[in-house]
Amino acid sequence: MLLFSMAVKSRRLEYKELTRAAVLEAAAEQFAARGYTATSIDDVADMARVSKGTVYYHFADKAHLFEAVFRDRQTRLLDQVMAVVEGRSGPWDELTAGLDAYLTGAVADPVHRRLMQEAPVALGAGRCREIDGEIGLPVLRAALEDLAARGELIEQPTGILARILFGALCEAVMAVVADPHPAQARQQATAALRALTNGLHRGA
Known about the structure:
Layout lengths: L1 H33 L6 H8 L3 H7 L3 H24 L5 H18 L1 H14 L1 H25 L8 H21 L3 H17 L6
Helix pairs in contact: 1-2, 1-4, 1-6, 2-3, 4-5, 4-6, 4-7, 5-6, 5-7, 5-8, 5-9, 6-7, 6-8, 7-8, 8-9
């Protein structure tokens, strides 16, 4: 009886997780297609094929739903970046490849690019930066600390350097997604970021 009860609870938990994931996917598509302001909870529920009450069961309101979508997409982006840097020749190569991958990944997918444009409207620029900082900043700080320990980084506090470099990366992303020619803007932003990081390299 105990095993049966545990199996039922496990299936219920799996169903809840699958439902939440479906709502997040539907919300991402709707926010990207319609924009944050024009998207309603009804739109999301219809696309996810769930009730409006189900959406509210998982998310308190539209703002909380957008934040969850934004966190999910930024976390996925970081996973992509980590996959790119794995197996690189050294920590400096990992850093530059990671910055390139973050910038490319943020703007290559049309849905992600539109969500980046809508995020300041939905959450406010300050909250967007907080979320990005929670997800990506610790990884960048760890990379710089590794470089500093190897003697490959200029002698500056790594915490401050990480915040400055991450701020530049975030601004580069927003500049590219707002540009009418994102491919060209991405190339320019990539070159600017590389020039900035080269200035931090003790061996440059």
